[in-house]
Amino acid sequence: MNYFLVKTEPNVFSIDDLKKKKSEPWDGVRNYQARNIMRDHMKPGDRVLFYHSNACPPGIAGICTVASAPYPDPTQFDNKSRYFDPKSSVDNPKWILVDVAFERKFKRLIPLDELKQYPELAKMRLLQRGNRLSVMPVEKSEFKFIETLVHG
DNA sequence: GCCAACGTTGGC
DNA sequence: GCCAACGTTGGC
C-alpha cells in the first residue's frame, strides 16, 4: 500500500463532485513528474489525500483511492478538450492517468496553515517552498498522522 | 490581481 | 546543450 496526495481546484472539481460521481479519471495532468507517479507508482487500492488548492482556505478535504491501473488520458486525443495535446498520438500516448474513487470527506477541512504547524509533517512535499507538483507521494506516517487529525 | 517559483519552449 | 522568454501554479 502506497500513499499519495492530489491537488485540485474545488471550483473545478471538488471532493463533493467526487462523492457524487464515485469515481473519476484524474485527467488533465500535464507534468512529467506527476504523470510518472501515476504511471509507475500508483496501484489500485492505494490511498490518496484529496487537496483543495486555490481555495479559501486551501487544505486537505478528504481521502480517495486509486481505482484503476494506469491508462492513457483520453483528453490528450480530443481536439475539443483544453487538455488536447497535438504532439501525442494513440500509438504513442504521452499522458497517463489513473481513476480515483471517493473514500471519505473529512468532517472538517484541514487548512494548509494548520498542516504547516505540525513538526510531524514538516517534510511533506506539499509544504516545501515553491512546490507546484499536483500529484505527489506522501509518507505512511504523514498520512496516518493526518487521519488522526480528523475523527469521523 | 500580484508575484515567486519553476517547468517548457525554441532560437542559436 | 545553453539559456532567455514565456506560461502555469497556487498562496496570498
Question: Please, could you describe this protein's structure?
Answer:
By secondary structure, the chain is an alpha+beta fold. It has a single domain, classed as ph1033 like domains (ph1033 like fold). The protein is built from 4 helices and 8 strands, in the order βαβαβββββαβα. The strands form 2 sheets. It has a 6-stranded mixed β-sheet with strand order 2-7-4-3-1-8. Strands 5-6 form a two-stranded antiparallel ribbon. A hairpin with a 6-residue loop joins β3 and β4. The longest helix has 10 residues. It is globular, with a radius of gyration of 15 Å. The protein binds a DNA duplex (12 and 12 nucleotides) through loops.
Index terms:
two-stranded antiparallel ribbon, 6-stranded mixed beta sheet, 152 residues
Query: How much of the residues is beta strand, in percent?
Result: 25-35%
According to DSSP, the number of beta strands is 8
Number of helices: 4
Shape: globular
Count of discrete domains: 1
CATH T-level topology: ph1033 like fold
- Give the class-level CATH name: Alpha Beta
Mean pLDDT: 95
Series of secondary-structure elements, N-terminal to C-terminal: EHEHEEEEEHEH
CATH architect. name = Roll
Reported for the largest beta sheet, the result is: 6 strands, mixed
Radius of gyration: 15 Å
Unreliable stretches, pLDDT < 50, 5 or more residues? none
Task: Walk across the major sheet and give the strand order.
Answer: 2-7-4-3-1-8
Q: What's the CATH H-level superfamily name?
A: ph1033 like domains
Look at the helices and sheets and give the structural class: alpha+beta
Percent helix, as a range, is 10-25%
Whole-Å distance between the termini? 22 Å
